[in-house]
């Protein structure tokens, strides 16, 4: 277990204890464990302080959905984040109340202006293994192969640019969202068996 995974587990265990413990002394201990873990992370592991929230219910990994969309030249659609100016496959956190497929269709529309249909699930990545520089939160990244139905490329509040790129000429990527290897693997496997990592 790496350092990041160790602190993820400490935060999860303290959250579990706060949610399910009945003993007031144990609740106090879990609060202390949570606060000490957060303080250690912010003084030893991060450049700027992170304020972790105590979760309701059982702590689980977050879900991130992404879309691989190709044009007629097999160029890959990427979006540029308006804050970081780094590029990634369109997508984002899945929202509660709608399915992963509905989430990716919504995210693509919001970030690119395109209406799409989902062809298949290409890959499922665990960011602890595939995107190790990611935040202390653990994500499961679902990447779908999508086809354009209609619409024109437009930017949004989240995206400062939207464009298609040749696989061999990708821009500077937001590796917290997608690595170059993930994009290559998904492109090569768009009609194959789902990659699970």
UniProtKB/TrEMBL annotation:
Gene Ontology terms for molecular function: hydrolase activity
InterPro entries: NUDIX_hydrolase-like_dom_sf (IPR015797), NUDIX_hydrolase_dom (IPR000086), UDP-X_N (IPR059176)
Enzyme class: hydrolase
SUPFAM superfamilies: Nudix
A UniProt-annotated Pfam family: NUDIX
Domain of life: Bacteria
E.C. no: 3.6.1.-
Keywords: Hydrolase
Requisite cofactors: Mg(2+)
Occurrences of domain Nudix hydrolase (ranges): 60-188
Gene3D superfamilies linked to this entry: 6.10.250.1120, Nucleoside Triphosphate Pyrophosphohydrolase
Protein name: MutT/nudix family protein
Organism whose genome encodes this protein: Staphylococcus nepalensis
Organismal lineage: Bacteria, Bacillati, Bacillota, Bacilli, Bacillales
Gene that this sequence comes from: mutT
């Amino acid at each position: 277990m790496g350092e990041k995974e160790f602190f993820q587990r400490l935060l999860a265990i303290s959250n579990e204890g706060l949610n399910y413990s009945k003993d007031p002394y144990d609740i106090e201990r879990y609060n202390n464990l949570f606060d000490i873990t957060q303080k250690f992370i912010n003084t030893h592991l991060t450049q700027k302080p992170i304020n972790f929230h105590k979760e309701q219910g059982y702590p689980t990994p977050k879900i991130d959905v992404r879309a691989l969309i190709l044009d007629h030249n097999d160029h890959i659609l990427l979006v540029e984040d308006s804050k970081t100016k780094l590029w990634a496959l369109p997508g984002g956190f899945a929202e509660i109340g709608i399915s992963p497929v509905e989430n990716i269709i919504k995210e693509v529309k919001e970030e690119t202006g395109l209406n799409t249909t989902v062809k298949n699930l290409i890959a499922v990545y665990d960011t602890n293994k595939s995107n190790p520089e990611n935040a202390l939160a653990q994500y499961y990244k679902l990447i779908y192969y999508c086809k354009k139905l209609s619409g024109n490329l437009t930017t949004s509040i989240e995206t400062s640019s939207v464009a298609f790129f040749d696989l061999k000429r990708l821009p500077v990527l937001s590796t917290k969202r997608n690595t170059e290897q993930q994009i290559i693997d998904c492109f090569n496997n768009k009609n194959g068996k789902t990659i699970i990592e």
